[in-house]
Design goal:
Blueprint lengths: L1 H23 L5 H19 L1 H6 L1 H25 L10 H24 L1
Helix pairs in contact: 1-2, 2-4, 4-5
Length: about 120
């Protein structure tokens, strides 16, 4: 149970960070931050309803693919609409999201194996 509360705290900290970025640089990667905020809220729901999603792993994988594709499209839209040119560092957001997805999937996998 401690691991579940720790994951929820990390997701809440991420949501707090994303909300705070809207006050710092509101014009930079605007669509990406909105999409990330939406996906973070959904991952919070997944973390709270972990028993359901541990039995429905293909649904979690499908949502992970959708979130990676959605964030990459938002990054491309943000970068093409920016006036200062293309910034390749913006795609590091995808690496961060992918790492979080892998850790979340391993957490679901371990919880499911422990329940058996």
């Amino acid at each position: 149970m401690k691991k579940n509360i720790g994951s929820i705290i990390v997701i809440l900290a991420l949501i707090g960070f994303l909300v705070a970025t809207f006050f710092l640089q509101y014009e930079y990667l605007f669509l990406t931050r909105i999409a990330s905020l939406i996906f973070a809220l959904v991952y919070l729901v997944i973390e709270v309803k972990q028993e359901y999603f541990s039995s429905k792993k293909p649904l979690f994988i499908f949502f992970g693919v959708i979130s990676i594709l959605g964030i990459s499209v938002c990054i491309i839209l943000d970068e093409t609409s920016a006036t200062d040119g293309f910034n390749a560092r913006s795609f590091m957001v995808l690496v961060f999201v992918f790492i979080l997805l892998v850790v979340s999937y391993k957490d679901l996998y371990n919880k499911n194996d422990a329940a058996k």
